[in-house]
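Q: I have two molecules that I believe assemble together. Could you output structure tokens for the complex as a whole instead of separate predictions?
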Amino acid sequence: MSLWHTLLLNLPFEWAQYDFMHNALLAVLLVSPLLALLGCLVINNQMAFFSEAMGHSALTGLALGALLGIADPTATIVGFAVVLAVAMVLMRRTSAVPPDTSIALVMAFVVALGVVLLSRGGGFARYSRYLIGDILTITPGELGILAVVSGGVAVMWVFLFNALFFVSLNRSLAASRGFPAGVLEAVFSVLVAVVVSVSIPWVGLLVINSMLILPAATARNLARNTRGYVLGAVAVSLLSGVIGLVCSYYWNTATGATIVLWACGFFALSLVLRRR
Amino acid sequence: MDQTSHKAMRSCGECCTRLVDFGVTLRGSRVLEQIRLHMHCGELTALIGPNGAGKTTLLRAMVGELPHTGSLRFIHHGNIETTKPLRIGYVPQKLELDRTSPTTVMDLFAGALTRWPLWVGTRKAVACEAQAKLELVGAETLLDRRISEISVGQLQRVLLALALTPVPELLLLDEPVAALDQGGMERFYQTVSKMRTEYDLSILLVSHDLTAAAQFSDRMILLNRTVLCEGAPKDVLLNPLIRQTFGFGFTEQEIDGRRPLFKQLEHEQCALQAGEA
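A: Yes, here they are, computed for all two components at once.
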């Protein structure tokens, strides 16, 4: 950590002189590639709407934390998202409703429930931090938790990649190669739920899904193969993350949303390059 | 007759796949019941039946995607009987693809052959193996192409090559020619026939083109929620159950009268060469 601070202090930039920016940069370097890696599989497996619902479920998780009187509601946000992810996987298997409709229904329910619970007595404004995120307040301890989660997810991702790749192409083909589609999708859904919900206090639930989807979607426009797709997504994510963080310092804007705007810019650029 | 004995000599005759009282229930309704099947290596079995007969469901249960009742047994070389599946190669009807999918043919093989995420590593050995399998099916120029930009026929060949990597003991083909034109279909059947003898495979092929299936298969099975009849392709097609099931039947002339595909293709190639000269 001290090495990191010394390194940044030697940079000739104004933003590099503050500890909170050092922590925030480290958080961006941890979270953005992780979200990009997951995003590649989320797009392959057509789960973008599912991950959006996971982000919005944080409202109910937050409300549960508040009801239980827990100071740091991250645990209830993660817990509720995981339970919801499992419930949605089971719902998709048994329900006759089309998957996107059932996701929309669940999302409507958890958002409404969260808002109702949080707005009792007119205190909703207290929670707006979770809507837009606040990466500048991250502490070294919280960074440590983020690093552990990121490491765990990255390891799981390595083991799941090929299997989920085949599941996304054809479920029977995946089964013939010994990859059980149902189990794998459930594990991956839980993984997405965990990553999205631990990132929400820093990125904000309104834009978290964009950080998951946009880098992968951008790389997909230009990639000639899967390697280009994955590495491109990580590159776009890191670029928009670092540029967005620095811009938000100078513009005095919310960091998560600034990062997402840069990612949108890169996506637009990829569309132009693809046309040519 | 000659052809059959030749095949019997080539195949080991020991390994086979046996389904006993096999059944599948989906969402409370019984889709397949009391299926009895016996497939030998070196044999191509055609599975025919009307829409909704459960042909695809049978394959999905056999690869382990759907739960089933009854037993699915595999007898390996050396008469070792297990319920543990043999290596199964499966060629699906289609893949879920969108136009921006960056997946290349090479990615498919890397995903099948390596444990690391398929985009990691130098992959030279994988590329060699993939290239060898692609050459077998006449798709050797496609290794670095994206699967979203090649034709349906090319993709079917690639999927066949993938199903043969590593070489399986049982090959399941789910209406592999449904989207192909006549020439593509014949080439595909030819390739599959070649594989059967080359690798001593049991092949189960779902087909809607009954006469074409009859020409290429060693045995034929008529399925409609259970096995209605089975036997030599010609006998099955002449069975009155065919008319009951499909609403139309075949005469012996119609089955024999169809131009033998191999001869026809050879003829065309000769004509082509003559034309070039």
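A: One point stands out. The longest helix of chain A spans residues 140-169.
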